[in-house]
Amino acid sequence: MRRGISLYREFLPAVVIGLILCWPAQAAELNRTASFSTKQLPAWAEDAWLEYRADRSAGQFKEASDLLARVKEQAWITGTRNFDYPAAVMLQEGEEALSKGTLNEAVDLGIEAQQWAPDDPNNLFFLAKARFRQNPFSPFAAIGNYVHGLSAGAGDFWFMFYTLGRLVLILFAGLLGGFIVFYLLSLVRYLPLLVHSLHELSGIALTGSAVWVVVVTLLLMPLFVGLGAGFIVLSGLCLVWLYMARNERMVAALFVLALSLSSFWLPTMLSWFTADQSTELILLSRVIRGDAAATGAARMMEAQGGYDRNGPVLLSLAIQKKREGEYAEALERYQQLGKLESDRPIILNNIGNLYFLMKQYDEAVAHYKQSLAKDPRDAISHYNLNLVYRELLRFNDAKQELEAAQQINLPLIQSYRGLGPIDKLFSKKTLWEVAFAESPSKLEESRKLFQNLLAPLPLDASPILLVLFAGGVIVLRLVVSRKLTATDCALCGRAICFHCQRRILDLKTCAGCWSGSKNVKRKADLPQIKIRQRCIHRMAQWISVFFPGAGHFYIGWGMRGFVFLAFFMGIVFTVFFRNRFFQLPGERAGILGFGGLLIVILGLAILYLQVFRDLVGASHEKS
Fold first, then answer.
1. Is the dihedral angle over the CA atoms 260, 263, 265, 270 positive or is it negative?
2. Of 389, 391, 369, 387, which is closest to residue 378 (Cα–Cα)?
3. Which of 50, 311, 510, 584 could form a disulfide with 496 if both were Cys (CB 3.0 to 4.6 A apart)?
């Protein structure tokens, strides 16, 4: 019971401080900016959207609703399911309504945005926020919208890509920030010991500022010989390696290993930052979503050129041309694609669809049968063949094909509401493959970034870093005697070399603690030492209030301290960049809606609780 009260008293102030640090984030509402241009829509959708806006501005809401119903009917005919740009504009107006306090209007705008883009999870997140503000004492409708938004987000490529990308960015920023703190603490803790070891070897006395002059000179030596700034970190780790505890060495070794494997992970890491600039990926994702703005993406891709041997792009352009009614151009794209891979069922089925729409039924039948010869359990080709047989008045054959399609995939056939044949699309796996595919631009950016840090070493030679670091440690081991490596003072926790350590009973201490406690001759005098140890742990707790995990370094728990520091740095990164962090670019709105702040606060509270549980537990164990 006493331990529980002590734990509560210790970590509560830290949690309060953490919440105060996090509080400014509550004012950081999502700044959704919809870079909207009606020219990215098909002509019929552009006209309908402008008319819809005019009706709403004039207060003719029934006319606007009827127009939206007609747009959705036309969308089903053309294979369009979402109008992301119009929905984003509706959400932007909804945010303005929320800021003005007109909550009913905000909810209505959210519902209309959901009608324009039913597959977009951001509309549901906005509805959840608006309904919660509208009726905070009955949040069930808001919770339902939020859960449905998460469910829709699981099937949305960009939502998943940016959510996972932000998590990867948090992890990377946390690990990097945690390592920086670990590195600085290691230098302050151990570099003076290295200078002391040199003094022991050479007999040259160094005191005061002279010690730090030598330390800075040793650290900056890579710059003097023309190496990149990254070698300062490597040389610093190499210099203090012998004085580190085992778990601290593990942190340093993992960092060096990660750096030496940069040629493998750095281009992939850059994909999280560059994928949204890929015209190819934007086109593919909009086509697979059935977004009306795929028209604009297709124009951009055609203007850019260079896609003659790119199968996914050719397929996307062909599908989009077909949706726009340009059957001849779509067939031309399929013919280009056929030169690359002519026997895939997806290509044969979609070419059959074009011949069906151009009323060349014999050609359509031939292509559907070729598709079924490659994949007899293709429900879509069976269904499309059924449509052709109906046009040819071969109703018995049509019935057989429809029954075959229903037996293979009944939910797909029942859910299809279009009037024409069904196009086969590439899987979402293709989007991930395109997002992380190697490209000359990503490799070039990776090489520049690596060489700016570790010049003149090229990225392809990054494994050499591991060899250089191991060689430096071995050389230092040969130069500095093994007896001059370090241990921690049992009282103050300061690192001391083996040569200078003192003993109080069976405790290894530094000279300062020894002189303050040298009167301890019996175990009955140990309470004096315990009081001093408690002061150390109390200092570690105060340090951890501001940098959770740094206090663990103070008491010699390096690996646990690094993990906590990385977690804390990730949260700090999220808090300071939250206004940008929980937002998708362009018309794609916020990630996780208004739940992002709750996640940050909960993570911070759990972190402080675990850190202080560790420290208080360690204090009791020492006592």
1. positive
2. 369
3. 510
Q: What gap in Å lies between CA 433 and CA 580, rounded to an integer?
A: 26
The strand pairing partners of 488, in sequence order, are 495
Q: Which residues share a beta bridge with 495?
A: 488
Please give the Cα distance from 407 to 378 (Å, whole number): 11
Summarize pLDDT for 444-471 with one digit per residue, the tens.
999 999 988 888 889 998 999 999 899 8
* Cβ-based neighbour number of residue 204 at 10 Å: 10
Determine the residue type at 558: G
Q: Rounded to the nearest 5 degrees, what angle is found at the Cα of 190, between the Cα atoms of 184 and 192?
A: 110
Using alpha carbons, list the distances in angstroms from residue 339 to 287, 330, 347, 423. 22, 15, 11, 20
CA quadruple 346, 350, 355, 359: dihedral sign: positive
Nearest Cα to Cα of residue 313 among 298, 292, 295: 298
From the list 132, 101, 122, the residue with the least C-alpha distance to 32 is: 122
pLDDT band at 27 (very low <50, low <70, confident <90, very high): very low
Radius of gyration of the chain (CA): 33
pLDDT in tens, 134-162: 888 888 888 888 889 888 888 888 888 88
Written as six digits, the tokens of 90 are 């509706």
Dump pLDDT digits (tens) for 569-605: 888 887 776 555 444 434 444 444 445 667 777 877 8
pTM exceeding the 0.85 threshold for the entire prediction: no
Distance of CA 267 to the CA centre of its chain: 15
Neighbours of 368 (CB within 10 A): 31
Write out the two tokens for 126: 């906005």
Looking at residue 23, its amino acid is W
Phi, psi of 376, rounded to the nearest 5 degrees? -65, -20
Q: DSSP letters along 533-556, please? A: HHHHHHHHHHHHHHSTTHHHHHTT
| Dist. CA 197–CA 211, nearest whole Å | 11
Q: What is the DSSP string of 265-299?
A: HHHHHHHHHHGGG-HHHHHHHHHHHTBTTHHHHHH
